[in-house]
Amino acid sequence: MAARPSVDHLVVASADLAVGTEWVARRLGVTPAPGGVHPGLGTRNALLGLGDLYLEVLALDPAQQGRSSRFADLARGRGEPALVTLAVARDDLEDPVPMSRRRPDGTSMSWQVQFTGTPLFYIDWLDSPRPAGLPDGGSLTRLTVTTPAPQELAGVAGIEVREGPWHVEADVDGTPLA
């Protein structure tokens, strides 16, 4: 039996990782920790714990210039960092795309994602552990997703879903992540 879908993590996109991590640190008072590189996708990340969830700062990887992917497109040309999407954990993905990265401690991680017609994506960690031991950025206290496809979030707890053009808003311990 499939587990109930749940919010796995929020994604802040930034053209530059240092700029993105500083943007988050100014808002939440905690600097995200280095995560790793997504080989072949043109991106790298930094991570911050949010209780049972985490926040990913996704940025272009200068060592992979010219690489294109759905994730790189979220960060490319972005003047200011912004909260752009979220990942929903599910174990029943259709047409999954394999992904991997090596953590700073050398541990390899492998998982799968399923893209949707919006920036939302689904994630299945398979046998890899979810990111853990991250700096504590607080707890998610509000998450609102406005989407042209509200059915994609059906059954996901903890989200206020509205119909309309794609937009994500979140508060961490009452502080807007905007």
Automatic annotation (TrEMBL):
| Source organism, top-level taxon | Bacteria
Per the record, the coiled-coil ranges are none
UniProt xrefs under InterPro entries: Glyas_Bleomycin-R_OHBP_Dase, Glyoxalase-like_dom
Which stretches make up the Glyoxalase-like domain? 7-154
Indicate the secretion signal residues: none
Name of the protein in its database record: VOC family protein
The organism of origin for this protein: Nocardioides aestuarii
